[in-house]
């Protein structure tokens, strides 16, 4: 059994969030590939106000969309992180010289050491 499969929801969530904040120090494609390998189920479903995205290709599409919307790739600030059973919740903010996000909120369903479902909400505002 893969050692990643036995992780708790909080361990998966923490790993995902740590990798997400590494985008300031590495190539975006490498960081995304590592997160997909370690933390994201191949059949993930993500709901966001822009639509429903499925699988690793859907995650890639959303990640590149987020990278375009947050052009300076500064670090996220995680203001609240919680996990109970197989459910995780995150509140986050982001700020760079051009834009900010004050209302980021994501929820997660985590099974077998991988994120299998996620909801995402955030509003990008000019600064």
Automatic annotation (TrEMBL):
Pfam family, one: SnoaL_2
Record-linked SUPFAM superfamilies: NTF2-like (SSF54427)
Domain SnoaL-like: 34-117
InterPro entries recorded: NTF2-like_dom_sf, SnoaL-like
Gene3D superfamilies reported for this sequence: 3.10.450.50
Protein name: Nuclear transport factor 2 family protein
Organism expressing this protein natively: Kribbella sp. HUAS MG21
